[in-house]
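The instructor's notes for this session suggest beginning with a concrete chain rather than abstract definitions. Hand out the sequence below and ask the class to guess, before any prediction is shown, which regions might be ordered.
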Amino acid sequence: MSFFEVEYNKMANRCANRLSLKDKKDGLAVFAAINVKVERVDPIFEAYCREIAYLIYNVQAVIDMTRVVIGGGISAQEIVVQEIERQYQIILDALG
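After discussion, reveal the predicted structure:
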């Protein structure tokens, strides 16, 4: 299992717990809540995307990249890429 799979599973499990879902592996229910910005799960999802944004920033500091591709099943959710981009911009803005 990759680092990203482990981190995704942690994020999804935390969200499922906050939502009191019976099926802790119900990714569709988790993303349904994320997509409508449920306050109980939004900070968890934002933190997850911020971690990915920091990883991208750190890699970009070493390798001169023009693009980053976010793949895997989770990337089918438009909100994932949007939130990673938002978090990345927050990082850039904070650094001046």
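Then share the key points. The chain has one domain: 3-95. Residues 3-95 form one domain.
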